[in-house]
Amino acid sequence: MSDSKKIVLLAPPYMVGSKGHLPPLGVGYVAAFLEKNGYEVKIIDSIAYGWDVERTVKAVLDENPDAVGMSVVSSNRFSAIETMDLLKKNRPELLIFASGRHFHSNWESALSSVSSLDVIIHGEGEITCVEFLDNYFQGGGMKNVKGISYRSESGKPARNLDREPIKDLDSLPMPAWHLFDLESYTAVLEGEFETKAVGVISSRGCPYSCTFCDKQTFGGGYRSLGPNRIVEELHHVARDYGIRDVAFVDSTFTPNTKRVHGILDAMEENPPQLTWTCSCRANVLDEEMLRRMRAMGCWRIRIGIESGSERILEAIRKGIAKSDVNRAVRVADRLGFQVKAFFMVGHAGDTSETIEE
After folding, report:
1. Those residues with Cβ within 8 angstroms of residue 22's Cβ, 6 or more apart along the chain or in another chain
2. Nearest 5°: CA angle at 51, between 50 and 52?
3. Cα–chain-centroid distance for residue 320?
4. 248-277 as b/e, with b when 16 or more CB fall inside 10 Å?
5. Where would a tag sit more exposed on the chain, N or C end, judged by fewer CB atoms within 10 A?
6. With helix as H, strand as E and coil as C, how does 210-249 read?
7. How many CB atoms sit inside 10 A of residue 193's CB?
C-alpha cells in the first residue's frame, strides 16, 4: 500500500513451562510478507517478555497501530480474548484479527461469542493477511477474500472459500528475524544449556496420515523449501544474529531420502557455521543418511515412535514398525547422535498391556 499502515502482530500472554521459548516463526513469516507489501510491522511477543494482559495491552496501544493480529492456540485463547476485549475497550475502532488452529476450527462460535474479534485468518496467513488488510483499508468488502471468516452485514458469522496452499515456498521472504528481540528468547542447546538456539522451518505439511495429527486441520499437503534456500537461511541466522544451533521444527525433516540428501549436498557446498537438530521418520533413516547428517553438524534426532505396540502403531496408521525404530536408534546411537523419542499414551485401543509395551 502507498499509504503505509502499522500492524502489530501479537503473541498473547500465557503461562510457559520451564523449557526455553523460541521465536514464533508463523508470526515472523506473516510479518515479513506484510513488510514486503508496504506495511509497517511490530512484533510483540508477550510470552517471551513475561508480560500479563494489562502490560501487553499498554504496549500495543503505545504503538498506535491501525490493526492488531494475534496468533492463538487453545492453551492461550482465554488470555487472547481478554487482550482483545481490553484493546477494544480502549480503542473501539481498532481492527483485530486472529489466526491459529483454535479459532480456525471454532470460527463460528468465536465470531458469535467474542465481539472484540473482527476477522479470523484460516490456513497459511501470508497472502491472506495482505489481501484482507488491503481490502479493509481501501474500503472494500470481505466477500472476495479467500481464507477468512468474519461477520456479514447481518452480523452473523460468514466464512469464505479457503485459500489454496502456497506451492512455491521459496517465493516467500524469510521470517522477519530483525523484528524479534532475540535476547528475550531463552531456548538453548539441551545438555549444554549455554548456546542460544532458534527454530527454522524448511517444509510445511506432511506426506503421512497418522490419525492423531493436526495436519488435517489446515491440509495443504507436503511442500518443501529448496535446499539452497534452506542453507541460505542457516547462514543468515548464524552470520547476522550469532545463532549457533537451530532446530528444524518441520513435522518431519526426513519424508524421503532424496530431500535429505539434496539438503546435505547444499550444506557440503556451503557449510553453515552452526549445529542442528531435526525430527525424523524411523522407517526412512539409514546409515548413509545418518552418517552424512552427523558430518554436517546434526547432533540430535527426534523420532516419533508413539507406541511400543505393533497393534497400536497399525491402528494409528503410523507407517512404521518396531523393527524400524530399533534399527534406526541403534545406528544413530553408534554414530554419536543423541536420540530423543516421542511417545503418546491414551491412543484409541490402548490397554495397560499396550502401554507397558
Report:
1. 185, 187, 197, 198, 199, 247, 249
2. 125
3. 25
4. bbbbbbbbeeebbebbbebbeeeebebbbb
5. N
6. CCCCCHHHHCCCCEECCHHHHHHHHHHHHHHHCCCEEEEC
7. 8
Residues 6+ apart with CB under 8 A from 236: 174, 177
The angle that helices 257-269 and 227-241 make with each other, rounded to 10 degrees, is: 50
Cell reading at 322:
518396531
The model's pTM is 0.92
First-to-final CA distance of the chain:
59
- What is the pLDDT at residue 312? 96
Split the chain (357 residues) into runs of 10 and give each run's mean pLDDT: 84 72 92 97 94 96 97 90 97 96 91 96 95 94 93 93 94 97 82 80 91 72 95 96 94 94 97 95 95 97 95 95 96 96 94 95
Q: Which three cell numbers stand for residue 191?
A: 545438555
Q: Tell me which DSSP letter residue 98 carries.
A: E
- Beta carbons of 263 and 250 less than 8 angstroms apart: no
74 DSSP 8-state letter: G
Tell me how far apart the alpha carbons of residues 310 and 313 are, in angstroms, rounded to a whole number: 5
3-state secondary structure of 319: coil
Cα Rg of the chain (Å, integer): 22
- List C-alpha distances in Å: 323 to 62, 329, 330: 57, 10, 11
Strand partners, 199: 247
Provide the angle, in degrees to the nearest 10, between the axes of the packed helices 322-334 and 287-295.
40
Q: Select from 91, 79, 113, 88 the least CA-distant residue to 11.
A: 79
pLDDT of residue 193: 67
**Cell numbers given for 290:** 545418518
Length of the chain: 357
Whole-number Cα distances in Å, 280 to 21, 295, 345: 22, 17, 20
Angstrom CA distances, 157 to 20, 94, 215, 263, 287, stand at 38, 19, 25, 44, 53
Tell me the residue ranges of DSSP E strands in the chain: 6-11, 40-45, 67-71, 95-99, 119-121, 148-151, 157-159, 197-200, 203-204, 223-224, 245-248, 275-280, 298-306, 338-343
As a whole number of angstroms, the distance between CA 322 and CA 289 comes to 20
Take residue 248 and report the three cell numbers written for it.
528444524
